[in-house]
């Protein structure tokens, strides 16, 4: 690790080391031009030497991702630069501690404080999801809490835009990146990710926040990661009996292994969460609150389980030979940590013929009859499932106590009166205002809002335009950006990115914009004509 204390990078003078991670060292620095404290992440030179441009591109991608997210619950990125061979990102300095340190030192917070943290992180994930960004590394270490109780999500180093899997970008389907304790099942198996992956990781984080431990533990990263695929987490209620059942149900629903049975976005989580927080502030019992989205997902999960049960083979049916089924195979008396044999096949496909029918099963019976240790085989799903439905585990969801969530009669009656009065008022208001005539409508002109700053576009063919001028090279793009920057007051760049474009082009724009003096990049994923 290089000691950069008292060294100046650009306009940032390093004051002291704040921490060190796998990709970068973080320094407290003074921005001399504005005389303010900032956090500067300096990429480790050793990574460039060993991993080359891939790690450098990922480092720059973090800056581009976070720079386009202007949200109070997301750590703000100010600029990215390079000097004397050091690549750095200057970002907002957050005075506080990360959530992992708080849980470790102070233990599990009370319900009110937990809901406060969950609400703010959900708001940050909603903003990232709306921008088409998947964080991919949501965990307590990346959630910062200030001295005033404000919560901020940091470290978009593994963030991913919804890109073309065939683009050859720095992150693509088949690559597994993240922290094993918090990775979603689709992340473990290397599938293409969407915001539901962040919902899963945040569900694991909430589990730890509410009981002090993660749902899965192990001695190796692989051992933990596999549990996300096929193990049922211990009921949160059993880890902390003081928790309301409805909160436990929410967290387990966020951690559903099938994406279709999980909260579909942070916005959905926020919708249910607002009802809980409102009831908590009113001093009402949270277990009497009915959460529409949670109820709908639970009902959908119940139907799915019933459908699986109805399609299951009857007990009297003779099972298929073990050799015809893919799965893990271990000795019935094997010790913990024994080597497992794995066979894989595609669901719904017939195995390739090999010899005469029944040959494999006879061989299996022959091995059992020979006196060798019998093998216990557990069928696992194929890795070749539909993206939307993921894999069917054939496991029961955690059993929770049945509860009566129906509100009391008098509360329902008061709400009914309130809605009737509101509807009558709105009807009266609409009748009091005469409809506009066609002439009046034609006379009204609504100006189209103009986006501030300079406009940049990356089209489906990976062509880059700066204010309608096509950039033919990096140097040409840099000159166009500098010329456009000199003609506007706002040092902001509005970047419209077609989903079919590749990461390399996006990073090039971010790099050129930084060199041209833009301090903010507002990126938007949308189809480009």
Description:
- This protein is α+β, with helices and mostly antiparallel strands.
- Helices cover 37% and strands 17% of the residues.
- Strand 3 (24-31) and strand 4 (36-43) form a beta hairpin.
- The radius of gyration is 28 Å and the shape is globular.
- Among the domains are: 8-92, Phosphorylase Kinase, domain 1 (2-Layer Sandwich); 96-308, Transferase(Phosphotransferase), domain 1 (Orthogonal Bundle), CATH 1.10.510; 454-525, Nucleotidyltransferase, domain 5 (2-Layer Sandwich), CATH 3.30.420.
Task: Summarize, please.
The chain is an alpha+beta fold and 529 residues long. The protein is built from 16 helices and 19 strands. The longest helix has 24 residues, at 409-432.
